[in-house]
Amino acid sequence: MKLNSNCYFPDTFPPQHQDCQPGIESIMNPRPISECTTRYQRLKDKVAIITGGDSGIGRAIAYDFVKEEACVVLIYYNEKQDALETEARIHELGGKCLLLEGDLKDKCFANQCIAKTIEYFGKLDILINNHAFQFLQPSILDITEKQLNFIFQNNVISFFYMIQAALPYMKRGGSIINTTSITAFQGHKDLIDYSSSKGAVVALTRSLALSLVEQGIRVNAVAPGPIWTPLIPSSFSAKEVTTFGRITSEVPMKRAGQPCEVSPCYVFLASDDASYITGQILHPNGGAIVS
Prior knowledge:
The chain has one domain: Rossmann fold. The chain is built from eight helices and seven strands; from the N terminus they run E-H-E-H-E-H-E-H-E-H-H-E-H-H-E. It has a seven-stranded parallel sheet, with helices on both faces. It starts with 46 loop residues before the first strand and ends in a 9-residue tail after the last strand. The N terminus is likely disordered.
């Protein structure tokens, strides 16, 4: 399917599966599309932290932010090959980038990320909490205590760690953007703990927005629908990948989205274009109705 003269978005995906999460973008077929937009300088001289910034939606956000003249700090778990590829492209675009590898479930590492950002760039304007794991389970009875604790520690509590560490350095006009999911609104029968964690992110976003509004810091979220990222082949079976995003009842557009179709939401929310928007959720999801 064609979006414009620069981007062609696939309708189907060949069978494939990766044994580890959150997955490796460089071996995906086809590769996720991470760039579609041009430069507008809406984020000129801003410094942004993007967690999960090595690949998928995080990578696309980084590319768009750099094109808008922002400097970016990309935090990733252990996908070094993807991170280096993203860094190289950012340098090609003339941007500035700092890579930080580690586990954000560790509060000390979260604190270090903020400290290194301030040391390297001297300030922090935008925080994007974008990292997540998901594990399919056919029944809530199959969700172990270990898995449950892991999902909430990674998908929710680490967001708190990053926000708590970042806030002392953020000034009026700053922006915090959290990545939630369509599953927070529609649920998912095989992703009960993941969906619950994303629901918590929605509540965090709305509550924090109220808490910080008088400080002039806006807090919003993006709730993507099915997007072609490394998390998909590392979560679903090879057969399931072939129909990903094509169930009409779930996605009226009959295809999965691409990272570059989601990243403009973050540019908008981080920029002055969204100066009157806080506590809100944007829904790039192919036409699904959410409430």
